Amino acid sequence: MSQDKTRKARLSFTPEQKLECPKLMVVEDYSTRQVMEISGATAVARWKKQYEQELKGHTPEGKKGHSLVSPRHQRIKLIARMNKVDTDYSINELCTAFNVKHSTYYYHHQNAMSPEVLQMITIIKATSTETNNAYGKRRMLKVLNERGHDLGIYKTASLMKKADVVAIRPTKKHYYPTTLGYITPALKKIKLMNAA
């Protein structure tokens, strides 16, 4: 008498899905049971614990040792830690100590936004919401200049791009002039139909 037991199909999850589950619990206050029901995963509690440890800076341990937090996020955190370190060390020594490539350090250091740029981006976002995205780069430049920021139109356009602000321009309707003796194709058609 052998019973035929069918096994449940094993679910596999991508790293993005494994990262999304703990984010739901930590950021959006979902319970473990709710996330288990939503995702179908049973290792949700372990992923949450690992996610919290990684945010504190601890590296994962175990057989596989895979990180839940994205590599880009890890690099940004490492570079932030490098910037907090005493400036007696050279960049070469810091990159060697933290195992970060020089190009990665310089890229993140160069693309870090200054407080002034962040302030301009918040002004751009606030202005675009007030005007229902009606302001383009020229009007936005006037607003920034009035608020005391001295910059040009190209810089304004790049800041708008960083802020994900796109001006919505309504399309202009084109009307054919009828007063100058020019008759539109639609009017010609109507006259021909009335004449017949």
Write a concise keyword list for the protein shown above.
single chain, 196 residues, mainly alpha, 3 domains, 10 helices, 57% helix, 0% strand, flat
How is this fold's topology laid out?
Layout: H1 15-26, H2 32-39, H3 44-56, H4 71-84, H5 91-98, H6 102-110, H7 115-130, H8 137-146, H9 153-162, H10 185-195
Helix pairs in contact: 1-3, 8-9
Descriptive account of the structure:
- There is one protein chain.
- By secondary structure, the chain is an all-alpha fold.
- It has three domains: 15-56; 71-110, no CATH class; 113-188.
- The protein has ten helices and no strands.
Structural class: mainly alpha
In percent, how much strand structure appears in the residues? under 5%
Low-pLDDT ranges? none
Q: What is the overall shape?
A: flat
Helix content: 55-70%
Number of strands: 0
Kindly summarize this structure in a few lines.
This protein is about 55% helix and about 0% strand. It has 10 helices and no strands.
